Amino acid sequence: MVLNPVISKLAGKLVVLASASPRRLEILRSAGLRFEVVPSWFKETLDKGLFKAPYEYAVETAKQKALEVARRMPFKHLKTPDIVIGADTIVTVDGMILEKPVDKHDAYRMLSSLSGKEHSVFTGVAIVLCHEKENEEVDYQLIDFYEETKVKFADLSEDMLWEYINSGEPMDKAGGYGIQALGGMLVEYVHGDFLNVVGFPLNHFCKQLDLIYNFCTSSLKSTSSRSDSLATSVPTQPPSSSQALLSHNSSSIPRPSSPCDSQRLHTQITPTASPAHKVKREDSESESSQTLVNSTSKHTDNRKVKLHDNATLPLVTRRGQVVEPTRGDLERICELMDGFKASKALFTASKLCLFDLLHSRPGLDAAQVAQEIKASAKGTECLLEACVSLGLLKSTEKACQKPVYENADLATDFLRSDASFSLHGYLQHCNETMWPLFSHLESAVQEGTSQREKAFSKHMLQATSTSSREGKLRFMKAMHNIAKITGKTIATAFDLSTYKSACDLGGCTGALAYEFTEAHPGLSVTVFDLPAVVELNEFFRPQHPDNRVSFVAGDFLKDELPKADLYILARILHDLPDEKVHILLSKIADACTAGCGLLLSEIFLDEDRRGPSRGLLQALSMSEGKQRSATEYSLLLKSHGFITAHIRHTDNLLDAMLCIKA
Ligand SMILES: O=c1[nH]cc([C@@H]2O[C@H](COP(=O)(O)OP(=O)(O)OP(=O)(O)O)[C@@H](O)[C@H]2O)c(=O)[nH]1
């Protein structure tokens, strides 16, 4: 069943949604459209000041998102889509453009600016039509438009605002609210297309498709058959007199476009050699397949068309009904099957310091990288290409030259060993310790015990064990990385102004303690950890250490705990067997007087234990401890006299809970 007959015009075409938004996927899927999802890597950083009107900004962003995917697919996915759809939703109020909030305070800023007022929601949409030419180049033709919906918010009290923000809903939504869910409660009225607010103006989109396929078909044909690669004329009449017809060179820097009507048609003819063909022809997997492809390149094309049509997928029986799995289903399965390869590629690149190298020397080609990391040319090339496909690196190919490589933002932010939020140490821990453990998962599950002894030879056991200096340092680096990334979120999760002294039990390098003193000017923090850990702390001392952080050596299961009015337990309990959990909590309870606090930070499992996967997968390492939900932690702490005051599910790697000694 399709909502609009025009959607059926796309049957048999490779339609790609260049968006990671689950709402857009759902809207288009519910309309009966068959498509693949390839999220865009375009960063939403256009200079808003350059646009005359806010919707121009949304349209340009949508355009760049779609074009990035249209250009990437022939190279990275080895197939050229027929149509790529990109969208961008923004909220405008009092002359400001609101996108997705970056944190809770940003969400507060946005929602309070919307309180009691009418605002506009604009979604810019870009449809890129790709035409493969016989000479293996690709022409792109662009149609874009926008839709405006007016929304009025009720007056929002501070309590309502914060309750809504703490629900976590605002974070991935333009303007900080989701009208389709809890955010609907904030809304007094909506004038215009509701789905436009949710992220995709379906009605306007269908009208555009209608225009494209019933109005412009002849122009599309003539465009795609043109041989001059930079033609700028548009061989069609505009769909309406209000439409501006523009030519646009795809290689130009994003720029404010001319007065933006609510729909526009561009001819954008940008030749790109399609490597999909080249790769198919050079495929040397077997002589016979090569011959087949070479000698019947026409068949290859037919096969491709068939592949785009879901009818070629195997049928499955679900609850007694024979159905076609979606391409998304298959992609998800492949992603899971290949997940281990992606992890190991990441660990290897990190271990070989590839991201450090390309940070200090961007623009190296594969041979130069191979020389620097002292690896084989073939292996390095494969690793570089795999990292590009995973979004960790970017490659640029200039005519007749070898591709050169640089870090993608993800690598710059998290994979360099000297990045502020580096995960380099944690990745080494995963590679050296978790990987061997998880390769014995079958026996771990069968026996229900840790597989350390099987996974590591005697020598390795020594090196990976925290009893060796090397193993200890690696583990400390891993914990340091996680503490740096999560520290600020945990330290600012609660109002701690009534506490003057805190003790971070098992606080390792002190990274978390420094975040606490930075966030709370009246607080001093003692880090309590094993003597061998405290001894190695010099490797992690910050450049300007805060003298409100001090280190005390001791064993929290045996020794007397330092006095404090707030105890911090971050990533400790999940790893301890029950008897040790009870010893530790009893010792903390004994050290506390009424009113003292206990701040616990862990991954909190969902109450129905269906997620998050990170917590549930972690449990498979079969350490002696266990993963718990917030309620389970609350009950555990209650049995030691602590009453839960606040729980925070954060967007970060760890959640937090503040309990008070009764
Ligand atoms: O009421 C609602 N308003 C908005 C949304 C969702 O908000 C985001 C808007 O962000 P953007 O357009 O930048 O799209 P992304 O999610 O980043 O995905 P892309 O990969 O396409 O950039 C969008 O997801 C809306 O659905 C909402 O849910 N309700």
TrEMBL record:
Domain of life (superkingdom): Eukaryota
UniProt record, GO biological process: methylation
Cofactor(s) required, per the database record: a divalent metal cation
InterPro entries in UniProt: COMT-like, COMT_C, COMT_dimerisation, ITPase-like_fam, Maf-like, SAM-dependent_MTases_sf, WH-like_DNA-bd_sf
Biased composition (Low complexity): 224-262
Record protein name field: Acetylserotonin O-methyltransferase-like
Domain O-methyltransferase C-terminal: 438-642
Protein species of origin: Oreochromis niloticus
This protein's record includes keyword S-adenosyl-L-methionine: yes
Any one GO molecular function term: O-methyltransferase activity
Location of the region described as Disordered in the Swiss-Prot/TrEMBL record: 224-303
CDD domains found in the cross-reference section: Maf
